[in-house]
Amino acid sequence: MGKRRGGRELLRSLSKKQKKHLREFGEEHPFYDKLLLLLLLHLCLPFQSDDSDKSSQESDSETEVEQVSGYHKLLATLKTSPESESEEEEDESESEEAEESEAEMGSEGSQETGEAEEGTEETNDAPEEEEATDTAEQMLSQEQADGTDTSCDPHHGVIEEFTDVKHESEFSLETNFMEEESGDCSADRRDSNPFKQHMDKELEEKEIEKMSTLPKTSSQSQWPRLGQVVFSSTLEKQKTFKADKEVDVKQLHLHKPLESTWPKVNKQFLSAADKPTDSSFTPLQRELFCVMNSYRDLFYPERNALTNGEEIRHAYCLHALNHVLKANAQVLSNNARRRDRKPGADTDDHRDQGLTRPKVLMIVPFRECALRIVHVFISLLEVNDKKKIDVSNKKRFKGEYGSDPEEKPPNLKRPEDYEAVFAGNIDDHFRIGVAILQKSMRLYAPFYSSDIIIASPLGIRTVIGAEGEKKRDFDFLSSVEILIIDQADIYLMQNWEHVLHLMKHINLLPLDSHGVDFSRVRMLNLNNWSKYYRQTLLFSALQDPQINSVFNKHCFNYMGQVAIRNVPLTGSISHVVVQLPHVFRRLEADSVTSVIDGRFQFFIDKVLPEYRDAIMSHTLIYVPSYFDYVRLRNYFKKEDLNFTHICEYTKKAAVCRARRFFLKGEKQFLLFTERFHFYKRYTIKGIRNLIFYELPTYSHFYSEICNMLKATDSGVDATWTCTVLYSKYDAQKLAAVVGIDRTAQMLQSKKNVHLFVTGEN
Predict the structure, then answer these.
(1) Domains (ranges, CATH) in the chain?
(2) pTM greater than the 0.70 cutoff
(3) Where does the UTP25 NTP hydrolase-like domain start and stop, copy by copy (predicted)?
């Protein structure tokens, strides 16, 4: 420890120019050679001995740990510390405008959730320099020893991410054969199972043309648990599709290991009220899996992280794993048949693969979600405690995707839904390939050797790249058969463009063959019809036009689509606990594109003049869109209004000042973005007047913001006001706030609507 502390003391003695030169050129300036050698003497020996001890303890299934020199550790320390250094050197007296413009320089791309990791509490600001140095050194020692994907960290340079090459031959589908004793080949003999029925169906060109040109026909049905279910298809009229009242696991055509493991894994969600004959699925899982197992597209907009989130995760993990095991069993079985076939025999019946290997793509928002998915996979593959499956790189995976409980400050008070969404590791830049072969699982598999890819929208976007970039790749998406997008509502808070970019590049013909055996490729893939066979499972916490657009315009499954379309009866306004008059002011717009300009003009002409008077102080303006926020901020500056502003890119010091100025009344207006509230959930004190520039994306945000007024003990309840701007294109959001009955009345009437909530509604 003495040598390490001494090394850090020497590191602190470096000037800014010395550190900058070391970061940029990877070596010290010749003038400081003696100092560099002294640093290496203090850093190399202790770290090398630690690495050698660690490498001797690694299991055979883990990748070998490389020896990391102290020089590289020193270099990494400098690479990972500029953020903390800049925070320490930042002058607190900078103007808010300067801080805001600096933050907005990086607003494009993927910085949305990076602020979420910082925004735990003001008391959790920059750590001590010594602790930061320790953390940086530990991070790099693990990254270089294990080959961490350092491209996820914006403070690192572009370093090639780790892929597991060691186990390539063990997980190759081309060189392995079905184990007779496993009995997995039985899945291939079941001609009635949904997997074979879906993948073996041969579409005709007339049917493809019909799906591309004709509109879909739809029908509705009422299910016990899902509610109002809408079926839509192009090829034929929907047949009566009802949920099974009881599900026998043996009738679901699950792959053999899953039949015995699923009831054990899912036992935690079952209650005593569930029937003994239906002990393996909850009512929600039963109906969802009924749709999944039919290989229809599914959109379920009622996912709740607090209640049914894990139920749904287990259900789609079962479906994805069942699909992969069946597909691989078919390939391995055909490998054995080809090996034993007579010379000159026809091989057309062995078309069992796509143009690339990845079959399932799972899009999730945070690393914690990927960690839970892999844990579910492992649990489903382990028949009992004695028969553990071999998981390559498991220790490294837990280190990178897990979280340290001590990192979270102890005295945070946040809503329960916030704690559920932001639990664990909330890094939003990741991607990992998973290969599954019989009784083994390989984490960090190269994409073209993976069966399942788990990634965030940002993580997959950085691989796909943009047009004109030299280094980009999306061939691995060419033969995806199941696309799962979980927690789609969170991507609205991150960057929805990443999701749209993915949908434009999935199921395209690859630019390279990637060593595929074309004699084994299905004709549907060769004909570029993969998108008509792809099943899309979309889960969200809310109905939103952008999410609906993806489901309606980018899903072409020939089996059709199933969407849950329940309407809210009460709305979140019933959860407002303060006595507050609500005025809903309708603005007129001719089209969706004209709403943006129409809302701005309506606000500055008719709403804002009513609040310019000094009597209407302490006015918070809630703005869901960042672009609307920038537009309003620029207008307020131009008009020289007395205001302050907080957005998701505002630095902590500026947030504290803005909250203090607003509470004391030094600033009349506070511009407040929805994404800041999503990531931070601070209670803003001092509000007397509320203006919702647009209805919130999350309906419960409406009641949360309104209930902030009770945090102000000023005894002026009668002067509180709340104004909401809406148009006819906000029907879904409006229904989620006021309920479906009031929404119908408000859309029919062009007058302003006044509602008074007593706190008892």
Answers:
(1) 193-236+251-270+280-338+358-406+414-564 (3.40.50.300), 572-758 (3.40.50.300)
(2) yes
(3) 295-562
